[in-house]
Fold each of these.
Amino acid sequence: MRHGKRKEPEDHLKAELDYLKKHLDKLWEHSQEAQERLQDIEVHVNLLTRLVTALCVEKLGMRIGVLKRLIKKIEKEAIQDSQIHHLESLYKLSHKSSEKPPPPKGETRHPWEDIS
C-alpha cells in the first residue's frame, strides 16, 4: 500500500509537468507568430515609407532636404508624444498605488489620520 500512495504524488507531478510543457509549447508558438507578424509589419512600413517618399518628391515636388527636415520633426514629435504617454501611464500607476483604500464600514477613523 505504501507504494500506491507514493506513486500518487509522482503522477501528480508528472501531470503538472505535462501541463506546463503544453503551455510552454503554446507560448513558443505564439511567440513565433508574433515574430512573423512583426516582420510583416516591418515590410509594410518600409513599403509605405517608400511610397510616401516617392509621392512627396515626385508628385508634390518636395526637395529631399525639406523632406528630411520634415521627417526629423515628425520623429521628434513622435518621441515626445511617446514620452508624454509613458509619463502619464507611470503617473496613473503611482497614483493608483498611493491611494489608500477607504476604511471598512463601521470602522471610524481617528481625526489625526486626516491631518498630513
Note: Residues 2-59 form the longest helix (58 residues).
Amino acid sequence: MQMQVLGVVALLGAGMILAGCKSAPDLTGTQALGLIQAKYDQTPPVGANIIVNDLGMRQGAVAKLWDRTTIYPNKYWADFKLTPDGKKAIKLPNGGDVIQWRPASADDTNYSITMVTVAANHLRAHDIGTIQDEMLPGVDTAKGAGYTEGVDLTGVPDALQQIAHNPGNRLSMKRHADFALANGAWALHSIE
C-alpha cells in the first residue's frame, strides 16, 4: 500500500514538474526583424552622412548641387557654393552654404568632406542570420542573431545617392541583436 501511495505521489510530482516547464515560444526571423525595426522607428529620423571625395565633388558639380565660386592660386583649393537644389539636398558640417575644398596637394586622392542629407529617415534592419540561444546576465531565456543595419536614402536626390555609393561611404554595417523572453513574449534586449 505504501509503495502504491509513493508511486502515485511520484507520478503526481513528475506531472507537476512537467506542467510547470513550458518551452519558450519560437522566435522567427520575421519577428526578430520586426522587433529591431520597431526600435529604429521609435528613434528620431536622421540624415545620412555622405563622404564626398574628388569624384563626388565632380558628380555634385555636374548635377548642379554646387557651383565653384573661387579657385585659389595653388589651383587645387576651391570654394563651392551650394545651389538652391543643393541646399534642399544636403547640410554642411559648418552649417553654411560654402564647401571649402582643401586637399593637401593636386594629386591628393584621400581628401574628402562629410555632408549630411536633408532627408531624414530611420535606419533599416534586414538580412537577419540564424537565431541562436544565448546567455545574458539577468535573463533566464535569451536568443540572439546578427543582421544588417542599413541607411535609408528615401527622398535623397539620385545624384546624391550615386555619390553615397562611391568608395569611402558606409551605407550598411553588421550588427547583433539580443532578445529576452519576458512574460511569454520576446522583446528586444539590446543591439550591439
Note: The helical segments are 2-20, 29-42, 54-62, 84-89, 158-164.
Amino acid sequence: MKHVVPVAVGLAAGMAVGFFLGAMVTRHDEPIVVIHNATDETLRSVFFQTDFHPTFIRRIPATEGYSIDELQPHHTSTMRLSSHRPTGFKVNATTAGGKKLSSEKVNVESQGVVFALISSDGIKLQYERLISF
C-alpha cells in the first residue's frame, strides 16, 4: 500500500506534463511575434494589438492586446498570438524617455511570423507567411 501513493503521484505528474506538452504542440498554427529592441535604451512598454476579422457566424470584430514591460536594449522577445484566423496587427512602444513609437498595421494569416524591429526612428513590421505541407 505504501507504493501506491508514489505511483499515483508519478502518474498524475506525468499526465499533467503530457497535457501541457500536448497543448503546446497543438498551437502550431498560430502566428509568432518576434520583437527586437534595436535602441540603446530600455523600452518602458511594448504593446501590440490584433483585430480579428469577423467570422461568418460572429459578425462583431474582436481585438486582443499583449504587452511586454521593460524590454532591454538590443534584446528580443518572442510570443505566440492566440489566433486561428487572419488578423490585423499593430505595435506601439514607449521609450524610457517617454517617446511614443508606432507601426503601420499589417495583415497576418493564421500561420507565420511577424518580425518587429523597434528603432529610435520608429517600428518596422515584416510578416513572413509559413507554408505547411
Note: The chain has two domains: 1-29, 31-128.
Amino acid sequence: MLFLRLDQALELEKAADNMKKRLAIRYAQFNGLSSGEIADARIEYLDPVECTLFLPWRHWKRNCLCSIDRETVRLQAIYSEGRKAGPLLRSNKGGHLDRVAVYYIIKRVAAKTRIPGRERISPRTLKRTFAREWLLAGGSLGSLQKQLGHKHLWSTAHYLRFILEDVQRNHAKLMERVSHGQETEQPRLVS
C-alpha cells in the first residue's frame, strides 16, 4: 500500500485504543515522522508553544526542526503526565521505544481496521499519506522538504508521484476531445 486516503487515515487513528498508539500514528500520519524519529524523539525537544520538535539526528543529518500539529502536542501533554524529560513514547518498562516497536504498534492498530490492504500499512505508508495530503492541501514542495528534513529537493520530489489530480484532469480533457471527434494537435518534433 502506497498511501491512505484521508478517510482511511482518520479510521486508523480511531482504531488506536490507547494514547501511546494514537500518538505513534499521529506523529507519522499528520507530522511526517519516520518510526526511527518517533522512537528517538524526546519530550524536552518538543516546544508546546511553537508546536515544533527538534530532532538532533534526523536521517543522516543533524539539527532539524519540524512542525507538530497542535492536537498532537495537546495529546502528548496528556500522555506525558507532567514529565519534563525522556522519550516522547515510552516502552512498557519506561524507556525509549525502538523503531521496530513503533512499526509493530502501527501494524497492530492497522490490523484492527476495515481498510482494504491493511496488512500492508506501515509507518512509511503513513509518511507517504502525510506528504500526499500536504501537497493536496496546497503545501509547496519546498515546505514539505523542510518538514521532512530532506537535504535535497529530489529526495522530496518523489512524493509528487502520489498526486494525480492534474494528470486526471488533463486526461479527462483529452477524452472529452476524443469523444467529440476533435482532432488533437500534432506534436511538434524538435530536431
Note: The CA atoms of residues 91 and 97 lie 5 Å apart.
